[in-house]
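pasting for ref
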Amino acid sequence: MMTKNEMRKPLQPFLVLRLRAVVLSLGESVSPAWWRTEFMNETGLSYLKRLYPRTTFHAAIHAAGKAAGDAHDSAVGRVGVYHLFRLPEALETELHRMPPDPAEDFFPTLRTAMGQPEELLKLLASMYDGKKTDASPGARKIGTDKDIMTTAGVRKTAAVYHTAFTRNEPCFPYFTTEIDGSRV
């Protein structure tokens, strides 16, 4: 169990990048697909490697993330909300500046799991504490913009996606922007 200090611990951006990659891979590989892209599989990566040899995974995440972002925006809207594929600008900027894999072990593991929803679900399960969470189909508010900037917020997002993919019911978790306690 995490303490309150751990829950508000500043976010490590590579966790967001990893969560995006797994969710994007799952969104493409479930049937029916949550978005219609083919970048997070061997064929897509081979294609992108010719164009972006040093940043293939970043290119795949960016391209598939655009489609996933559009699907999320359609479900939750664009005004006053953030989601995994449209985060506060400072975090997005940091994500784009990151090296492909700081630990150099995650992306090879992900690549092996691509196209295999069961294996991808195991990767996703490792990103949260294993507690079941509500993941009603459709848009699902799970916190505020302050929450998404924490490790606990990313873990909660992973839990919602895990439940949704396990049920094969598209769910779009989002965070609201709040100023002085009221939604903007």
